[in-house]
Amino acid sequence: MAAGIYIGSTEGYSGKNMIVMGMGLRLQKEGFNVGYMKPVGAMPQEINGKMGDEDAFFVQDVLGLKEDPALVSPVVVTQDFKVRAFSGQEPDRMANIKAAYDTLQAQRDVMLVAGSGSMYSGRYSRLDGVRVVRDLGLKCIVIDRLRKELNYDYLVVLRDTLGDAMAGCILNDIPPNYMNEVETLLKPFLENNGVKVVGVIPKDPLMGAIKVGELAERLGGKIISAHNKADKVVENFLIGTMQVENFMTHFRKNKNSAVIVGGDRSDVQLVALEGACPCLVLTGNLYPNDIILTRSEVLSIPIIVVRDDTFTVAKKMETILSRHKLRAVIKIKQGAQLVSANLDFEYIKGQLGLK
Known about the structure:
Blueprint: E1 3-9, H1 16-29, E2 34-37, E3 40-41, E4 44-47, E5 50-53, H2 54-63, H3 69-72, E6 75-76, H4 79-86, H5 94-105, E7 110-114, H6 129-136, E8 139-145, H7 152-162, E9 166-174, H8 176-192, E10 197-202, H9 205-208, E11 210-211, H10 212-218, E12 222-225, E13 233-234, E14 236-239, H11 244-253, E15 257-262, H12 266-274, E16 280-283, H13 290-298, E17 303-305, H14 310-322, H15 329-342, H16 345-352
Parallel strand pairs: 1-7, 1-8, 2-7, 3-6, 8-9, 9-10, 14-15, 15-16, 16-17
Antiparallel strand pairs: 4-5, 11-13, 12-17
Helix pairs in contact: 1-2, 1-15, 11-12
């Protein structure tokens, strides 16, 4: 029987795929036969006539696995599924999950089971992470990604709920200025409350970044200058709707931010270009004047023109950057290295009884 570990998180988009792939690649390198499952797939996708989960297809691909999508994600959350679950007409699908898990783990040394959303997501259909961990008899590691602060209370409550099944937590996306507090205050607090900190992963701008070319595509816009720099990386964004003086103050603090600005605001556009922003995003389908275009070419800073208004583009950018999936090969490598370098693999293997 394979040892099984569930990778969950305190909220969605916390880095589960990165951790699962990083752990899987590292354990494979050490000679273990690794299996993978995502019991509840929240992103339905059909490939070659088979329905599965978009992330699950991707992770299988990275780990070189070729299991049947119906086993890897026995429950896929479609609109129909939700309607049935909310109205109490969807049968309990835990038996399907158990059967699929038993089939997949038969030939493996270790099973990595990925959560969907937070540990309590899926409670409406009685398929939340806490229940999956209990019913499959798994150990569990919970990722907490720093957004404004860490969810330390949530982690302690989970430990109270899961007991020894909770093997620990991973603190993800920790910027340098927060490391000291994590090491001196939060880590000791968590460990005194029975939550082992299995790893602290530093913030790496590359992991949330997106290339200008891909950004243009996602925003439904087009690059109109400095095309040869479409592989520049954008880590953040600034909105240039304010007065130039105010904009300059913000801009100095936020290097490497794309600047979203109306196509008619040449004053802000020029400041952003001269300040070497990675790219300009001009809204309202308005093209810049010749001076801006020339400076853009001279400074090799691409300009993207989009149809939407500034507010709509800003909302889209926020979604793109917070949910930007780990698709590029460079990111997979970087993510795998981050995981390998910052997780206590000896402890994890000890929890799983792997020699």
